[in-house]
Design brief:
30% strand, 4-stranded antiparallel sheet, Cyclic Phosphodiesterase, Chain: A, alpha+beta, 8 strands, ligase, 2H_phosphoesterase_YjcG-like, globular
């Protein structure tokens, strides 16, 4: 099983993962905090080399872009999911995921694409309500300069196996402190983690 995602950098990634675990989501520590570009997909291993090449081509023509998370929302009652919303960068994510899914690994989506960061999935409504309320003031912003290929191991844990930095990242005006490959850039202050 593989997936393609944009990682949420530190300190936000760990904070949201800990909060997700605190709401009782059993998958919290199996899934790094992320924005999905290709959802979990079964792939024939024979296709993987071509898919990796496709991802490299997508990244080579990509450009760094600003992303901002702010506030919470839910997909309920359709699915029992609460998430932190993207208020900047959603269009870039939508374009990227279309390009990722246009290669040798094609995947039809069950629902229209809506980039987000899950903070609760399949847990009781009371816990979902708490997540939606307690993280309502959450905000974070950073520059996205890459995406990553993930594989699910035999224990159900998702691990990054390869990073794909954007080809235009180093010279892009939105990246004042380029750190190389797919290392997260220092997150820009954006209200910081919620208190309490």
């Amino acid at each position: 099983m593989i997936g393609v995602s944009i990682a949420v950098p530190e300190p936000y990634g760990s904070l949201l993962q800990q909060r997700r675990a605190g709401y009782g989501d059993p998958l919290a520590y199996c899934i790094p905090t992320h924005v999905t570009l290709l959802p979990p997909t079964e792939v024939d291993t024979a296709l993987l080399p071509a898919f990796r090449e496709h991802l490299a081509e997508v990244a080579a023509t990509g450009r760094a872009f600003p992303m901002r998370l702010e506030g919470t929302a839910s997909f309920r009652p359709v699915t029992p999911v609460v998430f932190v919303d993207l208020v900047q960068g959603a269009l870039h994510c939508a374009e990227l995921q279309e390009r990722v899914r246009s290669g040798p690994v094609r995947r039809e989506l069950q629902f229209p694409y809506h980039p987000h960061v899950t903070i609760g999935h399949g847990i009781p409504d009371e816990a979902l309500d708490r997540a939606e309320s307690e993280l309502a003031d959450f905000a974070a912003a950073w520059t996205v300069n890459c995406f990553s290929l993930y594989e699910q191991d035999d224990e159900g844990v998702w691990r990054s196996v390869r990073d794909y930095p954007f080809g235009g990242a180093a010279g892009h005006a939105l990246v004042p402190h380029q750190t190389g490959a797919c290392e997260p850039l220092s997150p820009a202050p954006a209200g910081g983690p919620p208190h309490g």
